[in-house]
Sequence to fold (315 residues):
Amino acid sequence: MKAMKTVVLLIAVLAGCSDKPNAGWTGYAEAELVYIAPPVAGRLTTLAVRSGEAVTAGQALFELDATPELAADAEAQARARSARAQAQDADKGRRAPELAVTRAQLDQARAAERLASIDHTRQQELLAQGFVAKARVDDAATALAQARARVVELDAAMQVGRLPARDDERSAARALADAAQSGRAQTAWRVEQKRQSAPMPARVQDVFMRPGEWVGAGQPVLALLPPANRKARFYVPQSAVGGLKLDAPVQLRCDGCGTAIPARISFIAAGPEYTPPVIYANGQRDKLVFLVEARPVNAADAERLHPGQPLDVTR
Fold:
């Protein structure tokens, strides 16, 4: 009986030793940095953040000296105002005082026409009575014709004075106004680009420039690390990679991270990272590994990952 108990106990111990732990892999945390660079060059005047600081979307990061752009913007505004005034002037007729002068001249011409008409009639009556020669009647008729022509001329001048500029001139003036406004928009955009803000919530990972330094166009001033850009990279043997799929859940563990971090596989390499010279033997095949990436499910958990930190990954 005692021997039977010993055999049962030995079987139980062996059964317990045969249990295999969950398969896992070793990897490390990695970050996809977002580099913030101005599209225009300038001297860095203000740096509003520091390395390691958490920033919110829209928070000011840095500012470049915008003195040249502000001067160009003021000039562009003046050009735009001038062009708009010229376009508006082309849509109008002559000024009221100028029209008043022409109207007064027209009134004088009409009065002269009436006098010439009266004189012409009188000369015709005198000619009929034999008191004047026919030449006097002809002179009066000529004076009347000239007076009438003067009235027609000034009346036409009044109508022309009320008209705007010709269509081609008005189109050219409006085109100049549009071009000036476009130039104003360009300078305003350059001024705005001298001030850069955070495009999303993130943490300042690194700062490359300091106030007083010259920043070239497209040169990064700092790097941001959004929570969604933290991920785990690990290598899976070829014997296990076939069982992994995108979006499959995994757990990440690291020293000092506390509880496991739930994540999902976001990338599986199409080819191996290392190919040995001979892959026919089983021992050589074990050296064949594939890169796999996983991203934490929650942004709060992603903050617990630090770039370069060793990780243990399990299914």
The two ends are 44 Å apart (CA to CA).
